[in-house]
Amino acid sequence: DTGVSQDPRHKITKRGQNVTFRCDPISEHNRLYWYRQTLGQGPEFLTYFQNEAQLEKSRLLSDRFSAERPKGSFSTLEIQRTEQGDSAMYLCASSDLGPRVSPLHFGNGTRLTVT
Amino acid sequence: SQQGEEDPQALSIQEGENATMNCSYKTSINNLQWYRQNSGRGLVHLILIRSNEREKHSGRLRVTLDTSKKSSSLLITASRAADTASYFCATVGPSGGYQKVTFGTGTKLQVIP
Questions:
Q1: In this complex, do B92 and A106 lie within 8 Å of one another by their Cβ atoms?
Q2: Rounded distance, CA B98 to CA B76, Å?
Q3: Smallest Cβ distance to B106: which of A42, A91, A109?
Q4: pLDDT by residue (tens digit) across B47-95?
Q5: What stretches of chain B adopt beta strand conformation (E)?
Q6: Contact at CB, A43 and B43, closer than 8 angstroms
Q7: pLDDT confidence of residue A101
Q8: How many Å lie between the alpha carbon of B77 and the closest alpha carbon of chain A?
Q9: Which among B35, B81, B37, B40 is positioned nearest to B58, based on CA atoms?
Q10: pLDDT at B93
Q11: SS3 A29
Q12: Of B27, B20, B41, B33, which is closest to residue B85 (Cα–Cα)?
């Protein structure tokens, strides 16, 4: 399967703990996106990478959030000192030619529950 | 913030009927895309319509775009139980930046067998 894969699928953590999610995009895609989705809402943009460069960050991404994409391949999203409001589905997507030309390909997400 | 708003928020129809969902957006676009999401899964791209196009078809899907009204509609004909999902419109800005993709709030479709 050459789709976007995300790990883990589910994560339950206690408030104050750090969590890290991983995304493996489609191999030939150089654009990678992170979105957050809460129940009943559409995905909200968090951050965007083109190759290894992080080109855009949403104001939603507080200083507790950090994302990396070393060597322009897989990406990680870390949340430090988690809060209950961080509970959501975290979606990763990749694209080859950019959304003006081609669509986003999404993984199945990581569902985070902060207790 | 989310650019698009879908209408209705929820729709329940019988199998075989047509389903129509509407999307309104606020700013100029390069293109508008529709995605589908099954419960607990990621989004799957359905169709992309560019700002200079008015209508596009793909199988049982028909999308229209009216840039003067900043609105789009997605029609699913002869619906099936397997079409039960949430449907989102997403807009891509016309210029600059990284071509941000902004999603709407979604329409939850239930097709009753």
A1: no
A2: 31
A3: A42
A4: 999 999 999 999 999 999 999 999 999 999 999 999 999 999 999 887 6
A5: 5-7, 10-14, 19-24, 31-37, 43-50, 55-58, 61-66, 71-76, 85-92, 101-103, 107-112
A6: yes
A7: 76
A8: 23
A9: B35
A10: 81
A11: coil
A12: B41
